[in-house]
């Protein structure tokens, strides 16, 4: 479920979001409740994820309306239920309300623990607010918290990144997500890069990524995807650690999911949908009793299997042969034989009797590797 509102747009963000305006936020809340009612009969959620935007920017009354509607519609009780939070918009009252309805996981958008870097990214919170908010989340009853970080920020040195990692790991979260800054069109950071205000150094970015892998492992985290690390010894379910984000694993393994809210994408019964990236238009459609779907696409089975192969290679366990065939109906070894051999020859992948997976070098360039599997 996508909550498209933010206090202000961050300089790196290319997601659909907009400034929080009281009347529109309330109208969105009412529309989301209507959309929930339209799909409730079709699903019983195993996982729920409120992403943004900044979901925690909604006030207590708006959260009460959404959560009460979900309870009435039988949409609570998911084994994993995540809400994304900005450290500047966390309160104990919200935490208690979320826990009362069954929310059991928080993803906190920290990005950096250096105030200069936070200002560079256009974040509204401070280093001090991160520690305060983390403490509030613990007091509110959350025992599964993700800390979201970014590296290779313009002006960030490896020493600054190592200090941020040390501070973040000292919080004691159960999960860590760390993403390299991506420069996308129509963002202030991209415009600054094009204007020559700073340059990119891939060697430094690789050095930071290596520091991440080493430091996370030393602190008891298991890497299970390119950018994601979790505590726990793992389970028999594809060897992922105990505190891995099940919602994201479902994406990477080609599972189905409903997408609600402006700009949200879904994949159900072989049909990919995308809602309108316009909150007012989204609300107008729901006011009329219609889903706010802008586009529908049905992929040919082989094309969908290729996408599933590509996404699944982001996971460190790669694709077990039997799991891929059970998920897609296709044998990875047969339909992508040449691509697999090419990646192995490059040193980007390995295979054995059980699975095909990217090597550490391959994971560093997983997007390029994944492209080979698209049909």
Task: Please explain how this structure is put together.
By secondary structure, the protein is of the alpha/beta class. Helix content is 43%, strand content 18%. The protein has helices at residues 22-39, 60-72, 92-101, 115-121, 127-139, 158-171, 188-194, 202-218, 246-252, 279-287, 301-312, 321-328, 332-335, 337-346, 360-364, 366-371; strands spanning 2-3, 5-6, 18-19, 47-52, 80-85, 105-111, 145-151, 175-180, 222-225, 228-230, 265-268, 271-275, 293-298, 319-320, 349-351, 355-358. The protein has an 8-stranded mixed β-sheet with strand order 1-4-5-6-7-8-10-9, covered by helices on one side. A hairpin with a 2-residue loop joins strand 11 (265-268) and strand 12.
Task: Let me know the average pLDDT.
Answer: 90
Which assembly state applies to the chains in this document? single chain
- Amino-to-carboxy terminus distance: 29 Å
| Main sheet summary | 8 strands, mixed
Q: Give me the number of helical elements.
A: 16
Q: pLDDT under 50 segments (min length 5)?
A: 9-14
Number of E-type strands:
16
Binned, the helix content reads: 40-55%
Structural class by SSE content: alpha/beta
Tell the overall outline: globular
Report the C-alpha radius of gyration, rounded. 21 Å
Instruction: State the strand order across the main sheet.
Output: 1-4-5-6-7-8-10-9
Strand fraction: 15-25%
């Amino acid at each position: 479920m996508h909550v498209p509102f933010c206090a202000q747009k961050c300089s790196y963000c290319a997601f659909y979001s907009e400034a929080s305006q009281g009347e529109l936020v309330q109208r969105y809340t009412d529309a989301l409740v209507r959309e929930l009612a339209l799909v409730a009969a079709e699903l019983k959620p195993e996982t729920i994820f409120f992403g943004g935007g900044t979901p925690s920017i909604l006030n207590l009354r708006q959260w009460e309306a959404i959560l009460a509607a979900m309870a009435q519609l039988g949409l609570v009780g998911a084994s994993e239920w995540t809400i994304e939070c900005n450290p500047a918009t966390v309160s104990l009252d919200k935490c208690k309300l979320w826990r009362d309805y069954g929310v059991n996981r928080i993803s906190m958008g920290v990005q950096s623990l250096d105030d200069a870097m936070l200002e560079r990214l256009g974040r509204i919170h401070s280093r001090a607010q991160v520690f305060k908010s983390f403490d509030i989340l613990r007091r509110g009853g959350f025992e599964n918290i993700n800390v979201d970080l970014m590296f290779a920020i313009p002006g960030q040195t490896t020493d600054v990144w190592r200090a941020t990692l040390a501070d973040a790991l000292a919080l004691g979260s159960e999960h860590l997500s760390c993403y390299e800054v991506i420069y996308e069109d129509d963002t202030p950071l991209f415009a600054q890069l094009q204007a020559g205000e700073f340059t990119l150094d891939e060697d430094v970015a690789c050095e930071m990524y290596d520091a991440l892998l080493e430091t996370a492992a030393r602190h008891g985290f298991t890497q299970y995807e390119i950018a994601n690390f979790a505590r726990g010894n793992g389970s028999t379910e594809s060897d992922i650690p105990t505190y891995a984000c099940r919602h994201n694993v479902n994406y990477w393994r080609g599972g189905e999911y409903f997408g609600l809210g402006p700009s949200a994408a879904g994949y159900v019964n072989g049909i990919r949908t995308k809602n309108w990236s316009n909150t007012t238009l989204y609300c107008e459609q729901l006011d009329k009793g219609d889903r706010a779907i802008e586009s529908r696409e049905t992929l040919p089975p082989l094309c969908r299997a290729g996408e599933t192969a590509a996404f699944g290679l982001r996971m460190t366990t790669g694709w077990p042969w039997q799991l891929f065939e059970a998920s897609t109906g296709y044998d990875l070894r047969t339909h992508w034989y040449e691509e697999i051999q090419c990646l192995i020859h490059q040193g980007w992948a390995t295979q054995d009797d059980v699975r095909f997976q990217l090597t550490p070098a391959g994971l560093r360039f997983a997007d390029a590797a994944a492209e080979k599997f698209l049909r």
